[in-house]
Structures are given as C-alpha cells and as structure tokens.
Amino acid sequence: MQLNFLGTSGAKSLPLFRSQHPQSVAARQDPSRRRHPSCAYVEAEGWGLLLDAGRFDVGELLEDKPFRGVCVTHFHPDHVQGLFPLRWAAGEPFPVFAPQDEVGCADLTTWSSRLDWRRVEPFQTIDFGPFVLTPVPLNHEPCCLGWCVETPAARFAWLTDTSGLPTETLAYLRGWQPDAIAIDCTYPPRETPHPAHNDLTQVLRIHAQLAPETTWLLHLNEAILQWLEEHPDALPEGVALPVENQPLSLIHRGNLTLKS
Amino acid sequence: MQLNFLGTSGAKSLPLFRSQHPQSVAARQDPSRRRHPSCAYVEAEGWGLLLDAGRFDVGELLEDKPFRGVCVTHFHPDHVQGLFPLRWAAGEPFPVFAPQDEVGCADLTTWSSRLDWRRVEPFQTIDFGPFVLTPVPLNHEPCCLGWCVETPAARFAWLTDTSGLPTETLAYLRGWQPDAIAIDCTYPPRETPHPAHNDLTQVLRIHAQLAPETTWLLHLNEAILQWLEEHPDALPEGVALPVENQPLSLIHRGNLTLKS
Fold it and tell me: Does the model's ipTM exceed the 0.95 cut?
C-alpha cells in the first residue's frame, strides 16, 4: 500500500495568512514546512483512494494517478473543500463514501456532478478494489467517521477529527491491529481534554493502547508544532510528524519504508 | 486604480480535472492559460480590495498587498470558497460586504473568525478608504449583487453572475458611465438566453448600451474559450478576454494601460 500525506493541518493551514508566528514564517521560507488541510492519498494495485479532501488543489495532485474514490470523515470544510472543484471533473462519477449527515457542506450534495455519494454506517465493511474499508465512529460533531483501510499488505487507520476514541472504536482497532495510524493531535498536552480534538497526552495513550508500528500526528497548527520544536523529546519511538507529499510504502508490521 | 484579475472562470476552472478538452490540455501545458474561479483585486492609495474570493490560494496572492476587505457578489462556492482559509488569518478582522442571504455558504457566517460581515442593500453607497462602492442587483439566484467601484481616477464594475441586467441596474450603470466593466460571459451566442448566465450576444448588447472603454469577459470555461478561438472576429474593439494575474492601471476614459 502506498500512502501519501497531502494535507496534515486543520482549517488553519501553514503559513497562516498574515501570521508572524515562527512556524508560519518558517513555512513561508521553506515550502517543505507548509501544511495543508486534511487529505491523504492511498494506492494499491492501481486503485487510488483519497482520505478526506481538505486540500483545494487535490485535482492537480491526482491528475496522473489512478484515483477512484474518496472516503470522507465529516463535512467540515477543511475536510471536504477540495470536492468543490473536484466535482466538476470530466469523465465518470466516482464514489464518495461519507457519514449520514443531513447538513453536509454548502451545495456539495445538491450539485453532486461527478460525486457519487455513498452514505455509510459505522463498522459497515466496504469492498473497494483491493481495499477493504471500514468506517469507525470518532468523537467529533457533526457525525464523524474514521477510516480503516486494509489491503493484503497493510492496515492503516485515518482517525481525524476526534477527542479520544469511542469505546467501540478503540475495541475494534485493538482487534484489527493497524500497522499504522494517523490521528488528530491538535493540541499540546492539556490538563483537561478538549471536547472536539485530541491533545498529545490523549494521542500517546491511544498509541500505547493500539501499539501500531507508526502513529502520525494530524490536524497540526502553529501552536502544537512550536511546542514540539521546544520539546524535542516529547515524541516516543514510533510517533512522528508526517511529511507532506512524500510517498511511503506501508507493509505489514516492521516493514514501513520510504518509497525512495 | 490598479486592477488584477485573479480568477476569471466559474466553478469549472481550467484545466478541468481529467478533461481532455483542447482548452484544458492547453492550460496544463501553458500555465498562463489557466483560469481560476471568480476573483479580482483592486488597489488605490494603499487600500486593497477583493471582488469575490473564488480563488482558494488568495491568501498567498495577497500576502504582500495592503488588503483591507472583500466585496462578495453572492454565496455560491465559486465566489466565496477562498474565504474558507482566509477567515483564519492572523491580525484584525476585515470587512466583507455581502448581500442579505440567509443561506450563505456552509459555516462561513457561523464561524466568521476574521470575516467582519457587513450586509448591504442594493444601491447603498459605501465609503471605503479611497473607494466608493455601490452594489447593484444582478439576475442570478441566490441574491446576487454586482459591485461598482469608484475612485477619483476611474470607475469599474464587476458584474458576475448574471443573465442580462435588471432594468434598474442598467439605468444606474448608464448614468454612472463606467470606464470598464467585467461581466459574466458563460456561453457562446444562444438562441434563447440562459436564466442564470450571460451568453455573448447579451454581453455585446450590454457593451453597446454602456459603452465602456473596455468590457472584459468573466465566468469563462472550456466551451466559450473554444468558441472564441474558432471565431476570432467575434469580439469587437473594446471587448476582451482578461489575462489572469497581470496587473492593469485603470485611468479615467481612454487611458487604460498595462502596468508593465
């Protein structure tokens, strides 16, 4: 399974317009430090799949890829705004798996165009080419579903946005044994959890509970990146900041390697 | 008055994802032929103003500009989607002048952040730094307002989206005598007008009625661009395709010049 993080921030991408925060200044100077809203691309056996579409220019990034469909976690703009342009694609409609949410985002479901909406239930298993996809409930309003993505080669879970994990999701993931997860880590350690987003303390607890080979941090912003820079020993072995647009090969247990 | 067309397409920007239409193929090969959703930047006396914010990367384009506010025509995503990221800007809130539309676009008005919404009435005159701004009704659902932008140096009207012009708007513009207009020209000549967007026949009639120095065509797409390429004599003197991101100096009557 190939995995490419295309967007690893929340709505507040880096650099933030007009911000003089050191993280935004650095991102303006060094394009590799830019971070875009939630979006990942996975590919296996010639099938390409988006996990969220928070990145506006996702069409340009996918132009030469065997893109086949999208898994949406929820309808906040920073997770679906890339579908505004993508829906006007030429060619055949493509499936967009998404939670049952009547509100949606603006007119995305009214003017679907090439978006073939497929509403899913938690823990409903979906066969999609080489992928087995399983949506799992997360703790975030509106209705938000993480996505467990499985091929014969690897198991990867995309878990954003959330504060902690619901009991049934934690139980499912413990049984499923992901090779790698990517999870909302919006805040540095907090005394009390935020109701909608993880802090690092929650993430490290989940990392310990699931014991994946790698846990990547998502929904990054100026504050958490700055805190991590000032606390270089805060992340234990196996917990990492993802690099955007640098494809990885994900192979079952202990064989996670850079693609070259 | 400086004028910079940042976005001159509708929702279907160029190139369209996966399209093999000659206009999209050409736009992929030649970046100067790309067209983004509706967006223009005007500047006078150190005050910068956006007309619509259909372009997603508008923050990057404005980073070094004395940007002060936005005039929104209506709440279709291809006119406001650039506000999704822009609202999380650092610094002070900035005014966003917009029509009274209860529906809006997703959560843009619920989570305004730096967007200081100012609801306006048709023909209400607004003093904004060196600008006098007057919104004028257009023929497009939902409630849609064109924007007349005046400085001591020049008068420019941004008239998209619309099919023809309402009688009161045409009368106002005739009296106002714009130096230049930019107007929805979604379709090649049609036998019967489209209810929501201009065709070229309608645009040429408006150009003749208002007699501005220059009429620029907006809301461009593969079909109208192809038709214009195949009918090179279709545009009379004074009617032109805008070039994106090439600043112009707009000076009263007969002195419209490229900035260099």
Answer: no
